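User: Could you check the structure of this?
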Amino acid sequence: MFIRRVSLSLCLITQHPPFSSKQIVMGSDDAKRRSQSKRLGKFLKEQRGRLYIIKRCVVMLLCWND
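Assistant: Sure, the predicted structure tokens are below.
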């Protein structure tokens, strides 16, 4: 059951690219770069959170004694 959840989480991580060409805000090159870096930062923060949860679950399962 846990393996299915982890694989589902990993699938969700890989399904969403950080940004698409439709999302790029038109304007100066500087504004585009700021917008892209903001989205990339948000994406990386979300992935870091997901990986933290997966890591905690794996550690919990490895250390669990009956």
